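Local shape tokens:
==================
===
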Amino acid sequence: MTFENILITSENGIGQITINRPSKLNALNVATIKELHDGLESLNNNTEIRVIILTGEGEKAFVAGADISEFAHFSIEEGAKLAQQGQELLFDFVENLSTPVIAAVNGFALGGGLELAMACHFRVASDNAKMGLPEVSLGVIPGYGGTQRLPQLVGKGRAMEMIMTAGMITAEDAYKAGLVNHVVPQAELLDFTKTLAQRIMRNSPVAIGKAIKSVNDNFKDGVNGFETEIQNFGDCFGTDDFKEGTTAFLEKRKAAFKGN
């Protein structure tokens, strides 16, 4: 599979996707969204990949927003279709992957860039990163899930302020608000994120996938997350990973999970 706008590497069970449009500050266009979907899908389907890291090329930007030139003249119908297709193809897709996806936010994460980072399962930021949803300054609102995921992460009031002022916050403020889990120096970002990935990889891939779904269902309308948890908890008892995990515990050894 050949890509023009992203780079994919893998090593020791960790897949990395790098958005590679540095001359555009890694801005998202339709082609890049499609490539990200395809790249994430291929890594998710690879049983050797246990964690995916998503980052941007260079030291300036994770993703500095959407490519405005693509939709500046859209009609109402075209705008709604753009948001719907983008959410389904990439943002909701990332959120619901069974393989953990960590955003390594290496610079500006604005508009669609912050929305992409928020769709990941959690976020690590470099100390130079800045984040925001500036869409209202263009006469539009966040359309890739920003009005929904930001309040979930930082609370309604803080999300309202960020959206309505169209301002940026620093990595440290993002950490204090709960928007990112960790802030580290730029030079240490990927190594630190890979260390977190390695800690995740010690655990059962099956259980992690079911935990992701259980947590996500708490935020879905018409879905009872507690019922999902009960079902997924029970399903775990029928897996080889459960047998291995409990046996290893009783035998006082490290479990060797195979993901089934």
Q: What stands out?
A: The first strand starts at residue 6 and ends at 11. Strands lie at 6-11, 14-19, 51-56, 61-63, 101-105, 108-110, 122-126, 130-132, 168-170, 182-184. The first helix runs from residue 30 to 44. Residues 6-200 form a domain with the 2-enoyl-CoA Hydratase; Chain A, domain 1 fold (CATH 3.90.226.10).
